[in-house]
Amino acid sequence: MELKLLRFQKSDISTIGKLLINGVFECYTLEDKDRGLQKSSDLSLIQKLKVYGKTAIPTGRYEVVISYSNRFKKSLPLLLNVPGYAGIRIHPGNDAEDTEGCLLVGQAYSKDFVANSRLAFQPLLEKIEQALKTEKVYITIESC
Fold first, then answer.
1. CA torsion sign, 31 to 100 to 81 to 70?
2. Among candidate residues 110, 86, 84, the one with its CA nearest the CA of residue 30
């Protein structure tokens, strides 16, 4: 299964995007500020430009698995091998205070905010869980 996150609205504190599954719109996303990082960038550059807990992950393609989160005390999607980052998950939340680099999902958005996050998250989680039974899941993150 292929997820694609298209970042389209940026502010000084957050980044709003659209999440597609196999080319079909699924929900909106909210991340921390996009600082122009790319997966292909040198790790030292990523570490230099990254502001801990306030920086969106580098654009690029990542494998997604589901694993247990000690922080959230439940199983959540996890992005693997994000350079300069650890524990990047997809989970419910509404604004930049709810994420430390993670991807938040919602059914609607406004500046620096996604709404109905839990309602958007559950169907997404179920689709990822189902896909992982038979195939790998990847997410490609792009800035428009």
1. negative
2. 110
Average pLDDT, the chain: 96
Tokens at 107, concatenated: 């059914």
Side chain identity at 138, as an amino acid letter?
A: Y
Q: Quick one: which of 141, 143, 138, 142 has its CA closest to 2?
A: 138
Query: Other CB atoms closer than 10 Å to residue 127's CB: what's the count?
Result: 16
At residue 102, what is the residue type? C
Amino acid at 57: I
Task: Name the token pair of 7.
Answer: 């970042």
Q: Dump pLDDT digits (tens) for 58-100.
A: 999 999 999 999 988 999 999 999 999 999 999 999 999 999 8
* C-alpha closest to that of 63 among 142, 134, 138, 141: 138
Lookup: tokens for 69: 């989160």
Best CA proximity match to 141, nearest among 52, 28, 58: 58
Backbone angles phi, psi at 129, to 5 degrees: -60, -45
- Model pTM above 0.90: yes
